[in-house]
Amino acid sequence: MSSPSFMVFPFHVSSSSMSHPRQDFGRDIVGRVSAARAWHRAGARSEMRTGRSMAHDLETARHRLDPLIAPRSVALVGASERNHFAGLAMRALRGVGYAGPLHLVNPKAAPAFGLSAVARCSDIDAEVEAAYLCVPQGAVLDAAHDAIDAGIRNLIVVSGGFAEVGGEGVALEAQLAALSRDRGVRMLGPNCLGFRNNLASVALGSIPFIEQTTRPTIALVAASGSVASSVINYGIQQGIGFTHVIATGNEMDVTIADLIDYLTEIDEVLAIAVFIEGVKDPERFIAAAEKARAMHKPIVALKVGSAAATAAVAAAHTGAMVGDDCVFDAVCDRLGIVRVDTIEGLVNTAATIAATGPIARPGVTLVSMSGGVCEIASDYGAARGVAFPQFAEDTRAELAGQISVLGQMHNPLDLTGAAVRDEHLWATVPEIIARDPAIGLTLIAWNVPQVAEPSMPNTLDLIGKTVQNLATPALIVNNVEQPVNEYGRAYLASHGQLFSPPGLAHALDAVRGLWWWSSRLDRPAFAVSVPSDIKARPANERETLSHLSDYGVPVVPTRVARNADEAVAAAREIGGPVALKILSGQIAHKSEVGGVALNLLGDQAVASAYRAMMVAVAERAPGAVIEGVLVSPMRANGIELLVGIARDPQWGLVAAVGLGGFWVEALADTALMLLPATREDIVTALRSLRGFKMLDGYRGLPEADLEAVADAVVRIGDAALALGDDLAALEVNPLFVAGSHVEALDALAVFDGNTP
User: Which of 528, 554, 561 has the alpha carbon at shortest distance from 631?
Assistant: First the structure.
């Protein structure tokens, strides 16, 4: 889709301005502010409409959601000056400069907002692409029928009182959904505040209008219209422009996934920010997220659900099921979705990535003329996992010719007062360090102007030009959080900058998300492999281990003993200490019924343990069918891991890896992954564990071969997928690891309707 030509506000330092910098800088920036206002009030809408129409005026080029989100003719149903939602909708339409056909509908055909009206949609004698139904809940179905009968195929429903309230609301929403499905109509909502499309200069909704004067680059999709309003208010305060603001409400028909798919195809959208309560269509969501990742369109998500009580709040708000929060973390990790936990983080991270695009290396450098700012940034970076690597020798040698007087070349780099005496250090030093082989992003700490005549105007201009001309991505970072007003916006625009992060803490939070996203762009696409041949259900531990072995998982050798003599014979054949475990498809937790005996050495110990086990199990699990006892060798001098696979009702099979045995409960230290997982996914997950030191040769333990462990876990996942959709859980606990020796010692498979 074609991009519009946005006006740039040029700023050049002339010879006269060098002589009188404050006076001329003040005149120039005031002029650019005036130009910015004029661009918005007169030219921006037409330019954006022109850029949009080049790709969209042909029906064959239109996305299936264009008639809903970029309609060329609209109707307001329930339009009345006494209707609060209709009033907000009219203000938004006029605010964005909508110039297409607009039809007002109300039962009395009473004029409103200075326009005539008709009583029903069927009275409109022109084509209407989309209608905003701002009528009470009890009138929604009749209004929808009327609109659809009039040929309108795209509806936005503001009223609440549907599935989010339960009871009759659920039934009413089901009727509305059936109407939408049966008549082939797309609906946004119900219980939503609609949308604003600043590219197409059209709005259908009641999100309070706020003027923006900067180039729109970020699309916002939010389950909550109120949250959407807070996001855009904060974003515009920080000098950000939004291409779209879309509130989804109950997502009865059009979902967040549909909108991500739509927005990804729009060139002007450089980042997609989403506020999510629940995901209605996981498969569609995965497909849309993968499409965005393939096109290098970042998705930044603020999703509720980390607190248990949030589920009830979300259900009351939009009827959403928030799902398991840890599983959603795994979803984001696999799909390259940057997850944040505040509105500020949502805005600043999306804007930062939109401004820089992907970076090639994780290393960050920051240049300031304050040692204190450098120290604060270094501490913030360490706390947030942002790397400030020390410069390479070649970089240091080149810097020495510029700043040897400073006596230090640390990263972050303090230019000290030398940058006041020699302003050109703001150009030469960033150019040198940006070429360092470890550096992917350059930050220059300086507040953007807030007045017409800021201090040190030449320095400001040099910094702006430097950031604009560096060969690698760079940003100007405000030292503290402050609004970016008209002077700051004009300054940034004049130097080709889309965004200046507000304060060091927000900046480094966003930079962490930037590198995380960049590092995931080249990962293979996520695709669930559907096995062509579903394997028979394993009925007990031995059959489960055998199934794992069929998929290349190394498993401990076992023998089945059905009496004490057979147990003794098996132990002799194995040699060394052995373990005995009860074999029964009805007993999942063997130790709880006395079904485990460890470190048995010698005939008498084995025989005695066998007999004692049979007595204990008969007493504690009298209804269980006992098939015998498994005899296997003991393993020592290694680490025990847990590999647990469970079926999430939304996302399918999810794997958890962590330290096994009592460590699982003591540390609550596991990492989750969607299946199928790659070896890279698993190694990354293992390294993320708080107990990773145990795998890294801690206190004389053999250092684990992470590739061997990852290979085993991949194969366990493949074995789980091969058991079909009825598999509820598959657990290997423990997976024994000693160097490159990896072995499943115990396994359990659980199927729906057959939980032991």
Answer: 561
